[in-house]
Task: structure prediction
Amino acid sequence: MKEEEQLLIVLDLTIQFQMVVETLDKFEGTRYNKFFLKKRMKECKEMLEDIVKRDYNIVYRNGAEETINIINQYEELISLIRTLNVPEKVILNQLIQAWGKDPKSLEGIVNKINKQ
Result:
């Protein structure tokens, strides 16, 4: 596997860990945050934060601008998904599956829609 592919995998994992850390932060304020669960989640969060910091620095040093652009794309996509209702999420999932099967056709449709 090429170095660039490996760095993209590390970045992808780092972003996912960061999303987990942020979700754990939100979870702490809920009524479901019982003592035992709270202790385990705190341990998990601390471990993930260390990994995120280390891996982010590795990837960032190998391409600062690209790293920031990819992170921005992830955040934009996650924000969009959070605002969707359940039927819209189902449709988005179907679009992603269709794209996986035939990316060229879906690209053509997207380009046509964006030109309108």
